[in-house]
Predict the structure.
Amino acid sequence: MTQTPPLPSAPMERQGALIQDLVGVLLSSLELTEDWAAVGAAFIPHGEEWAGRLVITERDGTTDGGDATFATDSQITLLLDALQQATAEQEQAFVSLQLTASRSPQEPDRIRLDTDLNYDRDPGSFDGLGGIDAAYAHLLAARVGEGRLPTWVRELLGGS
């Protein structure tokens, strides 16, 4: 029986390992065809859960996808929560994440990963799903500490 190696202890290294794990879980959970070219995902808080918007692009340019919520005990939520904690340990917690996993027809076994952790702007919602409000600001402050919140999120604490 193989065991998963422990996560690195340094927050930056842990952040990288968590992003890799997140992408692995995401890609393995989707019903991808052999011809997938890219998977785009955006994640925003949804109360104690996370909401995601997924877009799968095939090599011929056709797309499919949709919005989903991930329960508090799902692997996606656990990894996003751990990633948020790791970023908070460096400086401040991120409030949304966009990632794109892509591969070329010439090298389908090699996956390129682009990520964007958002700290300083309100990510909005997915047509009413998810978002950041005073209740979430309090939840995040309890989780990572008020001093680890982006300034604009910290300002929401006084609004409840």
The radius of gyration is 16 Å.
